[in-house]
Amino acid sequence: MTTAAQLAPDDRVTRSHAPLGTDDLARFLIGVRLMRRLDDGSLVGGTIVETEAYTADDPASHSYRGPTRRNRTMFGASLHAYVYFIYGTAYCLNVTSEAAGTGAAVLIRALEPLEGLPRIREHRGPTCSERDLLRGPGRVCQGLAVDRELDGADLERDDRLWLSPGTGVKPAVGVSVRIGLSRAAEMPRRYYACGSRFLSGPRSLSPR
DNA sequence: CAGAGGATCGGCT
DNA sequence: GCCGATCCTCTGG
Predict the structure, then answer these.
(1) Residue A147 — pLDDT band, cuts 50, 70, 90?
(2) N or C: which end of chain A has fewer CB within 10 A?
(3) Taking a C-beta distance cutoff of 8 angstroms, is the pair A202, A177 a contact?
(4) Å from A135 (CA) to B7 (C1')?
(5) Is the Cβ atom of A59 within 7 Å of strand C at any atom?
(6) Apex CA A36: angle with CA A93 and CA A202, to 5°?
(7) Distance CA A120, CA A179 (A)
(8) pTM score, whole prediction
(9) H-helix or E-strand spanning residue A192
(10) Which residue's alpha carbon is at the shortest distance from the C1' of C7?
(11) Contacting residues for A150 by C-beta, under 8 A, at least 6 apart
(12) Which nucleotides in chain C have some atom under 7 angstroms from a protein Cβ?
């Protein structure tokens, strides 16, 4: 039986907890939990260990050239899910990060699996190692069953996807250049939990 | 309407 | 480390 408390947990991160501003939010989200309630009511999620910041004045950001149909949720209020499809194969999940009218978001690049591991493995394949379950932005979305149906979801209110402060313990946060870009590749706007074994990208980008 | 490119992943060398 | 898959989105004509 599903109770209202399960559908609307009271340990959510809300707009009163989270900083407004893309790089501040990207750093804040390291150590925060991302939780997903699946259609059958089961819970999956993990601890965010890697993020990237994308702002309106950044040539690598989808919002750089103004609003389009794809990126319009980037221009809405903060703490909403921005989900898009890339390379014909993968979804990427972002958290919007600025006041309405400014197009910006934080890409969720990797999680340490925490809740519902058997279910996550169903999504990712039986031979997938625990380390690789949610290591990379496309894997996060596949493992947690995030697709464009969740684009625009309000993480403060939506029953399917939310942020939780968890233990509140903040790991040391490192900063590096972002991954996979052809433009503005030099900007240091990737944030990661120092020492985590669940980070994507080459080891050289994530020194302790 | 055609063309190009992409905030990736998995398999192979 | 390199390469192909795969398809959506945006841009320009």
Answers:
(1) very high
(2) N
(3) no
(4) 14
(5) no
(6) 45
(7) 24
(8) 0.95
(9) strand A190-193
(10) A88
(11) A81, A83, A93, A158, A160, A161
(12) 1, 5-11
